[in-house]
Specification:
Radius of gyration: 18 Å
Strand order of the largest sheet: 1-9-8-7-6-4-5-3-2
Number of helices: 11
Shape: globular
Order of helices and strands: HEEEEHEHEHEHHHHHEEHH
Largest sheet: 9 strands, mixed
């Protein structure tokens, strides 16, 4: 669960003449840092809030509430905790101009269904929800955008089902394999994650998500190394409704990671070695953003995603 956004003054994006070059596809990893420069104003969405429609879709054994707007290629936005779909209202209106933009409430976040059983929040069920959501809208694939716990799910889904994810955008959300490494090697990340302990004290539904997750926050590196490392392939994919293309957690789809470097909960160490798991990676660091760059630096984030989606 993430706490309220750490905000700061907005840093302008790089100048227009550089945009296409910086966002062109290359075989090498691309790392950008937002720095001061000429201000660029991204036009605010032209769609009105009344164009947003809310509805319900079947998940895997649950009903998922969602907001949607627009037509075109499907673009799905996943929130974390304690948020809901409204985290992305601005982005639905922006990208709904040329996409079918959809933001569901994850299971457990009302008015989506809230199952009682902890097993209902295990990764195989969450992956099933995404399959069902894409099927509900009649789409084989989507552009997937996610933050926090939504990003945790998105990493796994994109790795296992690349035919269903055309492009992936992650904002301050740890890749599971990197998170597990940091919990076994980084005292700083362990300290930053102590707010999750013990899971029993967290509010529903976050408590159930933590209890179902095989990666547990240790009290120390010593405690972490004394525990057997979880078999993430088994925990994430045993019992899935659709067989995964791979259980390696390697993400082969084009991926843009936007990271607020002042995030007090998910530290910059989670970016180290990420390219070993994500070979087609663009990494944009926003130096004065926190856990929610989509809120504190909305213009930069919007322009970055727009550039990433260009052919």
């Amino acid at each position: 669960m993430a706490l309220p956004a750490q905000s700061g003054p907005s840093l302008p994006l790089l100048g227009t003449s550089c945009d296409r070059r910086h966002f062109s596809r290359t075989s090498a990893r691309l790392v950008l840092t937002f720095v001061a420069g000429p201000s660029i104003v991204v036009p605010r969405p032209t769609a009105a809030d009344h164009e947003l429609e809310e509805g319900n879709a079947p998940g895997e054994g649950v009903r998922l509430h969602y907001a949607r707007v627009g037509n075109g290629p499907l673009m799905v936005f996943l929130h974390g905790f304690p948020e809901d779909w409204t985290l992305y209202r601005r982005y639905l209106l922006e990208f709904g101009q040329d996409h079918l933009a959809v933001a569901p409430n994850l299971r457990g976040v009302r008015p989506s269904d809230r199952p009682d059983e902890v097993e209902a929040y295990a990764m195989p069920r969450l992956l099933g929800d995404l399959h069902a959501l894409l099927d509900h809208f009649g789409r084989e694939g989507c552009i997937l955008v996610a933050n926090d716990w939504g990003a945790y799910i998105a990493w796994v889904f994109a790795s296992a089902y690349p035919r269903r994810v055309e492009r992936l955008v992650i904002m301050n959300g740890a890749h599971p394999a990197v998170l597990l490494r940091e919990y076994r090697t980084s005292p700083a990340q362990i300290a930053a994650s102590q707010y999750e302990r013990p899971a029993e004290r967290q509010p529903a539904p976050y408590r159930a998500y933590l209890q179902a997750d095989p990666i547990k926050v240790p009290a120390s590196i010593e405690e972490a190394t004394d525990r057997p490392a979880p078999d993430l392939a088994k925990e994430f994919f045993d019992g899935v409704t659709q067989p995964p293309a791979t259980t390696s957690l390697r993400v082969e789809v084009p991926t843009l990671v936007i990271w607020g470097m002042k995030d007090p909960y998910q530290l910059p160490g989670l970016l180290e070695g990420l390219d070993a798991h994500v070979p087609d990676l663009m990494l944009l660091r926003i130096e004065d953003a926190g856990h929610y760059p989509m809120e504190s630096h909305a213009e930069q984030v919007t322009r970055a995603i727009r550039g990433f989606l260009q052919p």
